[in-house]
C-alpha cells in the first residue's frame, strides 16, 4: 500500500532537495503546496508537520476515504478527483477551504460540509454511481453553503430535479449537464432565486428539448451571460424579457376577464331582490343573463322533493 507520509515527501525529487542550512523539518513547516497526483496513493498518513499547507493535489490516485487532514486549517484548495472515495468525511476542520474537487469518485450523498463557511467552488461531476442511483444532497450542507458557494458542478450524476438547490442564492456558475432534468417549470422556479447566475450549462438533459427552451430560461436569469456554452447578447435578452412581460400581461388580462364573467352572469339586482322570493318548488337557472327563470315548472305547491317522492311511489 502506498501511503502519503513525510518520508514519501522526503524521497520525492519534485519536493525536498537538501540545501545547505535547510533542514527537512524546516522545509515541512514552510511547505504550502504538495503535488502527489498519479502516484497510486491509497491512504493519507500523518502530515501534521505541514501546518502551512494551503494546496494539496491528490487526484488520479486510489484513495477510498478522506482522512488525516485535521491539521490542515490553512488548506484552501483540495484536489481529490478521480479516486474511489465513497463518503465526504473528516472535512470539518478545513475552515479555510474555498475550492473542493471531488469529481470522478463514488460519492452518492453530498454531506459533511456543515462547518465549512468559506467554500466557493464545489466540483462533484461524474460520480461512479450504482445503476438507478443519483447524487443526493444533505439539507444541512446546502444551508451551510448558501451564503458562500459560487460555483457548483454536478454534471452526469443521474439527477432528476434541483429544487433543493434553490437555497444556493450566491451561485454564479452552475453546471448540471447530462443529467435527467425534465420539467422546465421547475427550472424556472429555481433559477429565479439565483440572481447572481452568470453561466448555466444544462446540455444533454431532456428538458433541453422543450419548445422555446432558451427563450424561456434567458429572461428568468437577468445576468446570465452563457447558456449551454452559447453566449447571450444583450439585444436578445431585452427582446425576450419584453416578450415574456407582454405574454404575462396578456395572461393577466385573460384571467381578469374570466373572473369578471360570473359577475355579469349574476347581477346584484334580480328577481330575488325585489318582489316575491323564489318558489320552493322551482329549480332556477340564469335567463338571458338578465334574471332567473325556473328550470322546470312546479308540479304543485308541494316542495319539489316531496312531489318526486309521491310520483315514485304512486
UniProtKB/TrEMBL annotation:
The keyword Repeat applies. It comes from the Eukaryota. This is Protein phosphatase 1 regulatory subunit 42. InterPro entries: Leu-rich_rpt, LRR_dom_sf, SDS22/Internalin_LRR. The lineage of its organism: Eukaryota, Metazoa, Chordata, Craniata, Vertebrata. Keywords: Leucine-rich repeat, Repeat. It comes from Fundulus heteroclitus (Killifish). Pfam families: LRR_8.
